[in-house]
Amino acid sequence: MAYYQRYHPGRVDVLVSSLEDVKSTDYVVWSAGSGGKGGPTRTQAIDRDSCIHFIRAATQCGSITKFLQVSYLGSRRNKAPWWTDQEWAESQEVNNGVLKQYYPAKLAADESLAAAVSWSKGTLRGIVLRPGRLTDDEGKGKVSLGKTEARGSISRNDVAAVAAQLLDSDYSGWIDLLEGDEPIADAVKRVCEDKVDCVAGEDFHSIAKDGP
Predict the structure, then answer these.
(1) How far is CA 84 from CA 81, 89, 144, 150, 180, in A?
(2) Which partner for 197 in 41, 133, 173, 185 could form a disulfide, CB atoms 3.0-4.6 Å apart?
(3) pLDDT in tens, 88-125
């Protein structure tokens, strides 16, 4: 797990492996994952349980003001209102097929952060960054950010650049990310000003009622 230091904008470079270390920072970035290796037990332990433990620990640390976790575009229970029926069907086919272990683990972690933000009464901002298929291509610096199509790709470099700028903003919510034509700085400014939140369509009351 890495955390973002506010005095080094655009860089996520400090690795921590202990919950106690979370107390020493302002922002937390969670992008750990099992990578599909080790079967269901490992996926649940890393993508769900470990992430939720860090979220709960962060809520107990007065210094932590932002928690950003990298999820994926299809992590949702309900059809996004801006998706077509075909897009939703294709997303569900993937979630219930090749991602049948990964999908519920990531969704549980995403919902835990949403609940933690709700219960924090404004002291914690949570950002669930939800990219499409990740590539190792060189970053283009231009993206589609917000209520995107249901399928697509994005370079890891551009994901990192968007994450850094979101952490420097006042954004809180779920935000989807694909390759696109809008410069990253403009895209982040737009979603902040327009209060774009891709949790739309989910049952937020049910997500938040029991806490993280």
Answers:
(1) 8, 9, 17, 9, 19
(2) 173
(3) 999 999 999 999 999 999 999 999 999 998 888 778 89
Which tens digit of pLDDT belongs to each residue from 10-56? 444 445 545 455 555 688 888 877 666 667 888 888 888 889 988 98
Q: Where are the alpha helices (DSSP H) in 96-168?
A: 102-119, 156-167
On whether the CB atoms of residues 145 and 162 are closer than 8 A, the answer is yes
Residue 204 CB coordination number (10 Å): 15
2: nearest Cα among 38, 34, 33, 48: 33
Q: Give 173-208 as a DSSP string.
A: EEEEEEE-SEEHHHHHHHHHHTT--TTTTS-HHHHH
Report the DSSP beta bridge partners of residue 126: 67
160: tokens are 């990192």
d(CA 206, CA 191): 25
pTM, two decimals, is 0.85
